[in-house]
Amino acid sequence: MGLALQEIMETIRMVEMENLDIRTVTMGISLKDCAHPDVNIFKKNIYNKITTKAADLKDVADKIQREIGIPIINRRISITPIANVGVKYSSADYVEIAKTLDEAAKKLGIDFIGGFSALVHKGMTPDEQNLILSIPEALTVTERVCGSISVATTKAGINMDAISLVGETIVKAADNSKHINSLACAKLVVFCNPPEDNPFMAGAFHGEGEPDVVINVGVSGPGVVLHALKRYPDADLGEIANVIKKTAFKITRAGELVGRLAAERLGAQFGIIDLSLAPTNATGDSVAEILEEIGVEVCGAPGTTAALALMNDAVKKGGAMATSYAGGLSGAFIPVSEDNGMIAAVEKGALSLSKLEAMTCVCSVGLDMIAVPGDTHPATIAGVIADEAAIGMINKKTTAVRIIPVAGMKAGDMVEFGGLLGRAPIMEVSQYSSEKLVRRGGRIPAPIQALTN
Amino acid sequence: MEQTKGNRVVISVVGQDQKGIIAKVTAILADKNVNILDISQTIMQGFFTMVMVVDVKDYNGDIDSLATYFKPLEEEMGLKIRLQHEDIFNFMHRI
């Protein structure tokens, strides 16, 4: 088949001027065969398995990036939720396990390793509780380890005891890592209905139904979508959806090629393409700016949720055409700290926590990278998580919370995380208490939608 | 997979217009036994832009190593020279 000059130029323009990239190649590794009652042997087992299976991950990704001329930003690993392989370990043991994971990540030259996780949506084993208790220290003393906790699903309901514990854990993690702007919290996600094949951090883990080793790819490209829309200033909303769809198609195809090449060369199964629009702090690489291009003056103005719903759906439609294996969280991410448009909207007072919560009803994730005052009460954090979990549970979708009570800061301040995580304005939280609700504990029953059989 | 595994590589050259760009790029290709199949050149938004489709069947090495021969020229003339396997274009724009 002949190559058309126009197509070549379009690809080059997308990469050179519009920040097209493959956001991440993530290798999922099962650690089930590493279980051992002696924590030292367990640590050795997981270190060996991870460093063997992913030995060539970085080199292969580097080489593919050079061959096809599209940058691959992150190389990552997701592992079986550690609490699922743990055998009667103490919290101190779990901190040591996190250190081992960190060492493995550093040895391999990969950016993040995700799966310091526990799935406790229906109840907690003592082991899972120990893992959660170890989080404040484990995520402070390690650099590249990410964790997640599943506290609710549509089928199980919402585990309020777990949410209460997680609220306290987040505040403790913030305090523990106050010398680094409470960064430990940025590496922890609390989930409702977590996807088991999500390649994006901090919520990546290698779920139950997954093969031994798998390659999942996360594609992004808000910049490309934004530029495409700018070429149609007078299009109606139906046409706008179409433009987004076509753009998402092309981005996803690039991701599929990378995923298949990487899987083939690494001797792993090819898993899914996560066709999320995930922003970065690069100029123009912003989901908020897309919403503003669609037509709201500032992200957060009335109409923002509608614009986001249109965009999210169009991305999925375009992606579904392009690959048969769309998965993960596919849709739009709306983190605050990683998106220049979102940061600006918060600073202008146009975007509040409650508007963000409303927006999460129609997009793929939830409250992501939200910085709040350091003196926020654990029960208030638990209340925010419970609200988000309820949205996910009732709407049969994934929702997540990555919230950072930044020690020593108050509403209106600006916190700098540096690197990929960017900077975030401290957002105001409600001054009214959620303590009684959280203290009641127990489990919010699964909704009637759970009975789908 | 529907990958072509072909020998074709797309070379794109972008930079300030100046004399001798085509001559120097093609000289390197001839020296390395690379055959030019198609060549098109234009001035886009004030920049010299050239796209070539080449056949690397007789070149002894991979895209990475071929790219290194263009590095000195990129610096000398202030150009951006990019080599990409044809698969990415076929895959991205066509089903």
UniProtKB/TrEMBL annotation, chain A:
It comes from the Bacteria. Signal peptide: none annotated. It holds the Pfam family DUF711. InterPro entries: UPF0210. SUPFAM superfamilies: PFL-like glycyl radical enzymes. Homodimer. Belongs to the UPF0210 family. NCBIfam families: PRK05313.1. This is UPF0210 protein BHF68_07480. It comes from Desulfuribacillus alkaliarsenatis. The lineage of its organism: Bacteria, Bacillati, Bacillota, Desulfuribacillia, Desulfuribacillales.
Automatic annotation (TrEMBL), chain B:
InterPro entries: ACT-like_dom_sf, ACT_dom, UPF0237/GcvR_regulator, UPF0237_ACT. It comes from the Bacteria. Residues 10-90 form the ACT domain. Belongs to the UPF0237 family. This is UPF0237 protein BHF68_07485.
